[in-house]
Write a structure and sequence with these properties.
single chain, alpha/beta, 3-stranded mixed sheet, 7 helices
C-alpha cells in the first residue's frame, strides 16, 4: 500500500518591502514560494497575511512563525521549508504627495551653498591660494597673485573628480558599481533594519509572555 507523500512548500522571505497603507499584505509580497503543484502555489501566493491599520505604525515585522500556521490552515499537514532569513520587515508608506518645487529649490540651494562654503573654508585653512600661486610660479617662472586660469581648471577638476568618485552625473552612472554614498546608505539601512527586527522580536516575545500569564491566571 503506497503512502501519499507529504506536500512540501519552500519559502524564501524577502528582507524588506514597502506597501501603501490600507493595502493587504499577501504572501507573494513578502516571500518567494515554491510548491509541489501550480495550483497550490497560486493559492499560497494569494494568501492574505494582514492589512495594516493606523494603529500598526509604519514598521511591521512578519516572522516565519506567523506565516507557517496560515499556510497550514490553507494546506493541512504541509511541510514548510524555510530558505534564507526568517522574517520580513514591512514598511507602510503613506499616500504619495506631489513634490513641492519650492521645497526642492530651497534644499538644492542649501546643499549648493553649504558645499561651496565647506570647500572654501577648507581651502582657507590650508592656504590653498598661496599654494596655487606657488605652483603657477614654478610652472611659468613668474609670480601671479591672481592665477585665475589655474583656479578655473582646478575648480572644474574638483567637479569632475566628484562626479567620477560618486559615479553619477545627474541620473547617468558611469558603470554598474554602487557609489560610495549608496554603499553607506545600504549599510545604514541594514543597521536600522537589524535594530528594528531585534526590538520588534522582543516586543512580540513580551506580548506572548503576557498572554500566556493571563491564560494561566484564568
Amino acid at each position: 500500500m503506497s503512502q501519499i507523500p507529504t506536500p512540501t512548500v519552500y519559502v524564501r522571505m524577502r528582507s524588506r518591502i514597502r506597501i501603501q497603507r490600507g493595502r493587504a499584505v499577501k504572501l507573494r509580497d513578502i516571500a518567494h514560494v515554491l510548491a509541489s503543484s501550480e495550483d497550490q502555489e497560486d493559492r499560497l501566493l494569494e494568501l492574505e497575511l494582514l492589512r495594516p491599520g493606523p494603529e500598526d505604525g509604519n514598521l511591521i515585522l512578519i516572522d516565519i512563525l506567523q506565516v507557517i500556521p496560515r499556510i497550514r490552515q490553507l494546506i493541512p499537514d504541509v511541510n514548510v521549508e524555510l530558505m534564507g532569513p526568517g522574517h520580513t520587515l514591512v514598511e507602510v508608506m503613506a499616500r504619495k504627495s506631489q513634490a513641492s518645487k519650492s521645497l526642492f529649490i530651497l534644499v538644492w540651494l542649501l546643499l549648493f551653498f553649504g558645499s561651496a562654503l565647506t570647500i572654501m573654508n577648507f581651502h582657507a585653512d590650508v592656504n590653498m591660494q598661496e599654494v596655487q600661486i606657488r605652483i603657477v610660479e614654478m610652472l611659468t617662472g613668474h609670480r601671479d597673485e591672481h592665477p585665475y586660469l589655474f583656479q578655473l581648471a582646478y575648480s572644474l577638476g574638483i567637479g569632475f573628480g566628484m562626479a567620477v568618485f560618486f559615479n553619477h552625473l545627474f541620473k547617468k552612472k558611469w558603470n554598474e558599481e554602487p557609489t560610495p554614498l549608496e554603499v553607506e546608505m545600504f549599510l545604514y539601512q541594514q543597521n536600522v533594519d537589524q535594530y528594528v527586527v531585534i526590538e520588534e522580536t522582543e516586543r512580540m516575545h513580551e506580548q506572548n509572555q503576557r498572554e500566556l500569564n493571563d491564560d494561566e491566571r484564568a
